[in-house]
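Lecture 7 notes: from sequence to structure.

We start with a single chain of 349 residues. Read the sequence below before looking at the structure.
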Amino acid sequence: MKLSQYNYSFSPNMLAKYPAENRDESRLMVIDRASGKIEHSVFKNVIDYFDEGDVLTFNDTKVFPARLYGNKEKTGAEIEIFLLRELNRDLRLWDVLVDPARKIRIGNKLYFGDDDLLVAEVIDNTTSRGRTLRFLFDGDYDEFKATLYKMGETPLPKWIRSKVEPIDDERYQTIFARHEGAVAAPTAGLHFSKHLMKRLEIKGVDMAFLTLHVGLGNFRTVDVEDLTKHKMDSEQVVIPEETAEKVNQIKRAGGKVCAVGTTVMRSMESSVSTEGFLKPFDGWTNKFIFCPYEFSVANCMITNFHLPYSTQLMMVSAFAGYDLLMEAYKVAKEEKYRFGTYGDAMLIL
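Now the structure, written as tokens:
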């Protein structure tokens, strides 16, 4: 498969600017890979496709307020910092993206907040936009982290809308978010409400959790026509032993193992035994999945409608089948489904 095969007629008007009024009332497209049939429903009806003895696997990462606005020393030029990951707790070192990056050099000081409450020094240039910052802060670590996060803003993708609103603080987070470390939400999980989770539990559908801290690399532009030459950024993954055991037990019994989102699918496919079962894991993955690919663990998945040329679209096409997925996207446009982070959902059986 080539990059050019993952284009489709797209308009920004197709993107959802806001989430559905209720989490579980987005629209749901259901695709049956065996028959090629496409159905239309509402997300809360996803329960109808699962039975006792099936398992849904979720990503319980938690998004932190990763976007900061400040000023450069001397010139006072406005800058935007996107926190990527903490490198050293004691030294207050962080990998960040800077915008605009052109005039931010090693040794520059950056100021954030009223009365310059937080100061950072640029100590390394890692990429064209990337920098390593050392935050200069006199208090202890908990005070520093609290100050940093108080100044931060929900890192809503700017292609949704430019202004972050109070609704985003809650809705750009899954209800089961627990382990902090993501700079973007695992969007398929945003559709699950407490009520829906309870209904699934009562029906006997099992739930398992893993953690993949979503980084900006998940959204990095693919700029090579030959997909074998694209390199994904590494992201941190934890698959607990309990999750592996639960998934493998249901897989052996022939039940549905559903990956809720591309991050869950990528995590599971990053830690597979030679027999095709899920292994516990604590490390990093840069796995890139595209056609053709033979999946080992999950036999169904829930996902959103992804943008052209995105790695998520490539993975989903590998799972659903390229031709069927492109047909589904054509139908989605005709039926006015909402695309993107806050958009509608797809269940692939």
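The domain at 3-63+168-348 is CATH 3.40.1780.10 (QueA-like). Keep this in mind for problem set 3.
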